[in-house]
Design a protein that fits this description.
Strand order of the largest sheet: 1-4-5-7-8-9-10-13-14-17-18-19-20-23
Structural class: mainly beta
Strand content: over 45%
CATH class: Mainly Beta
CATH architecture: Beta Barrel
CATH topology: Porin
Distance between the termini: 30 Å
Shape: elongated
Order of helices and strands: HEEEEEEEEEEEHEEEEEEEEEEEE
Radius of gyration: 24 Å
Number of helices: 2
Helix content: under 10%
Length: about 400
């Protein structure tokens, strides 16, 4: 009989927490912590934060820029690090509510992006950010089988997004200086469905969880945007805009559904194996078309045309003594790029430690090294677009979390 303490089980979670937000596929970041759905008769508090430094860059950029005439001129730029570091927090509280029903209230940041550029490329793109927040309530009804315990899981969540883009027109004679920005916000409802199965005496737990897609109709504004000049430059009708440099803005987009299978099991005294396979439906996000509120025309389009994402993880956990345990894992994340960006495959090697301060309090820490494979942005939508090459690079992540039961 292969038994393993709860300490070792949670050490595996520490490693997963460190590497989860480091995924290259699409804009995946954090996941809701649902530990309180299983077994516990006590109320549990869970919280953590992960710092990720992707350190992703363009080695070479080839672009076209406006020049006097009017005409266009080709420009080459090198060595631009664009992926900003970011922090992903999570928090949840939950446990046995009544009878065989456990519920968890959770906060997480499921998706995100944060890029910033410098030099000539800022005419095309100066920055892009996507911030999401998820507030969820998930419950599980569990019942005993002849062997083990089965749980049926369901819940709902409320998701908010803040999206922004910027371009820099300073020095191009467009009548404005500084960055032209688009800022949009939206919110949507979604749901979770799943099933879990556990055999506590073998430290075995399997969970299959579906997180629904969310449909967003965002609204906001353009500011400091030379509509008439840009319309003329791209073959549009400048007469509709006059001298306007600001306008309302709207856009619609779908954030993807996720199916996530996770499994763990004791394999020997003091040893645990764990793994997961996750599919993310990133192909639903083809582009974001922003419509201005003056002439009602699509005025900017950000193209993604992602492929679906796959993330595969395998790892081992080990109990060193009654209070300390650790884990190591390796994750492969399939890139989603089709040539409109450089979101290619990544590999993440992660490690974590867990320490039981007492029978009810545990602290966990983890770290990860992230290897990003090379990629090329080869697709262009117009003469006023750019191509770029990202070399193979390394990033890292650090994670700290804690849990307490009452």
């Amino acid at each position: 009989m292969h038994k393993l303490s709860a300490t070792a089980l949670l050490a595996g979670c520490a490693a997963l927490a460190a590497m989860g937000p480091a995924e290259a596929g699409g804009f995946n970041r954090g996941v809701a912590n649902l530990d309180g759905l299983y077994g516990a008769t006590q109320l549990g508090l869970y919280a953590g934060v992960t710092y990720v430094a992707p350190q992703r860059s363009y080695d070479t950029i080839n672009m076209t820029l406006p020049a006097p005439g009017p005409s266009l001129v080709g420009v080459t730029q090198t060595d631009v690090q664009f992926a900003n570091s970011y922090v992903v927090p999570y928090a949840s509280v939950g446990g046995r509510i009544v009878g065989d029903v456990n519920c968890v209230g959770s906060y997480s940041q499921p998706y995100g992006a944060d890029s910033e550029y410098y030099g000539p490329i800022t005419f095309h793109t100066a920055s892009q950010t996507l911030e999401t927040n998820e507030y969820g309530l998930t419950c599980a009804y569990g019942f005993d089988l002849e062997k083990g315990r089965l749980s049926v899981i369901g819940g709902a969540f409320y998701e908010t997004i803040d999206y922004s883009q910027a371009r820099n027109f300073t020095g191009y004679g467009f009548g404005v200086t500084g960055e032209s920005t688009v800022e949009l916000t939206s919110n949507a409802l979604g749901y979770r469905l799943g099933i879990g199965y556990e055999i506590p005496e073998y430290a075995f737990k399997a969970q299959l969880l579906f997180r629904s897609a969310t449909n967003h109709d965002a609204s906001g504004s353009y500011s400091n945007t030379p509509f008439a000049v840009l319309a003329a430059l791209t073959g549009g009708n400048p007469g509709a805009y006059g001298g306007a440099t600001s306008a309302p803005a709207t856009a619609s987009a779908t954030l993807p559904a996720i199916v996530d299978l996770t499994v763990q099991s004791g394999i020997a005294e003091g040893w645990l194996a764990f793994g997961s396979i996750k599919w993310t439906d990133w192909s639903v996000l083809e582009d974001i078309q922003v419509v201005e509120g003056i002439a009602g025309q699509t005025f900017s389009t950000t193209r993604f045309f992602f492929e679906d994402g796959w993330t595969v993880t395998g790892g081992l956990g080990h109990r060193f003594n009654p209070n300390l345990s650790g884990s190591m894992s390796l994750t492969w994340d399939k890139g989603v790029s089709t040539g409109w960006d450089t979101l290619t495959d990544s590999w993440t090697l992660a490690g974590g430690l867990a320490y039981d301060v007492s029978s009810n309090i545990q602290i966990r820490g983890g770290g990860a090294a992230i290897y990003f494979t090379e990629g090329t942005k080869s697709q262009v939508a117009s003469p006023l677009d750019y191509t770029a090459y990202s070399p193979a690079e390394w990033g890292y992540a650090l994670s700290l979390s804690a849990s307490a039961r009452f």
